Amino acid sequence: MSTDKVRPTKLRFKGEKAKKKRKRNDDEGSSSKQRRVEEEDAPDTWVMPESPAEIRGPTFIMHPSDPSPISVNFDSTRNKIILHPLDKEGISESTTLLDREPTEVAQVWVTTRVAGSPTINLRTGTGEGKFLSCDKHGIVSANREARGPEEEWTPVVLPDGMVAFMNVYETHLSVDEVAGGALQLRGDSEEVGFRERFWVKIQSKYKKEVHEEKKKREAGTEMTVIDEASVNHMHQAWGAGRSVTSREDKKELKHAQKEGRLAEALLDRRSKLKSDRFC
User: Fold this and answer.
1) DSSP 3-state helix, strand, coil percentages of the chain (rounded to 5)?
2) How is domain 42-213 classified at the architecture level of CATH?
3) By C-alpha distance, which of 167, 163, 184, 165 is closest to 175?
4) Which residues contact 32 (CB under 8 A, 6 or more apart)?
5) Which residues pair with 31 in a beta bridge?
6) What per-residue confidence (pLDDT) applies to 26?
7) d(Cα 253, Cα 255) in Å, to the nearest integer?
8) Please, which pLDDT band fits residue 8 given cuts at 50, 70 and 90?
9) Residue 233's pLDDT is what?
10) DSSP H helical segments within 176-235, as ranges?
């Protein structure tokens, strides 16, 4: 009997920590949604972005081509982009396209962006790190080590969850069929149809980072509003710090002022009567 250990097929990037196994509740009645939430708790789980801002870090790009769906790969040996048929990977037929995960580094692109910018850069995850670019003729390549306007892409998350990529020339990345039935990427499509729609997956930890950053920004905005309100409150206060803002407070103030005037008038009258008595 062989004692060789089976090598794991899970793709892992350098520096990533091993994922701890979680106990699943497989009792009758537990939903697939609950199991999916448990799996997405792991930082290296591949999930789909819900907004363009979530597309960052390691990125897996697929297209539902017919007869075989494809992934956008980079062949570092030949220094060119390859549209790789996913059906040749020997994955079970029950596995849907949306359940797919990258099985080799060639399938992974690294997405970076300038803070506050809607555009992204897609860099190869293998080799020397080349950027995905598109020239004015619509020719897509990945042979530049420096980024410029032609290496910028604007991702748009469509209502069905798919993603379209627009370049600096305001045309879109697409899958085009050339002579002989071969497929290649083009970047000169002016409309978003089937050929321009891609499925994109990112790692869960980067999606969580976006939500955490959003919470911090919202918390900072809330603190600013509270500070402004407290300053206004201080300048509107009188007496023991009681703000005169409501209609009831104004009525009470007028009533107190009226009673004060009546009391003063009564005292003046009594003083006058005493003076008349002793005269």
Assistant:
1) 35, 25, 40
2) Trefoil (2.80)
3) 184
4) none
5) none
6) 53
7) 5
8) very low
9) 47
10) 204-235
pTM of the complete model: 0.66
Cis link prior to 67 (omega < 30° from 0)? yes
Confirm if 143 and 135 have CB atoms less than 8 A apart: no
pLDDT at 205 over 70: yes
SS3 25: coil
Q: What is the residue whose two structure tokens read 């005037």?
A: 261
Q: Is the pLDDT of residue 183 over 50?
A: yes
Residue 222 has a CB neighbour count (10 Å cut-off) of 10
Give the closest residue to 63 by CA, choosing from 87, 81, 82, 83. 83
At residue 180, the pLDDT reads 82
Tokens for 212, please give them. 């955490």
Six-digit token string for 176? 């085009």
126: its two tokens: 């293998």
Say if residue 71 is exposed, middle or buried (CB neighbours under 10 Å; 0-12, 13-18, 19+). buried
Query: Under a CB-based contact definition with an 8 Å cutoff, are residues 182 and 176 in contact?
Result: no
| Nearest 10 degrees: Cα torsion 9, 11, 15, 18 | -50
At 237 the pLDDT is 43
Joined tokens for residue 241: 């710090």
Closest by CA to 145, choosing from 124, 163, 166, 167, is 124
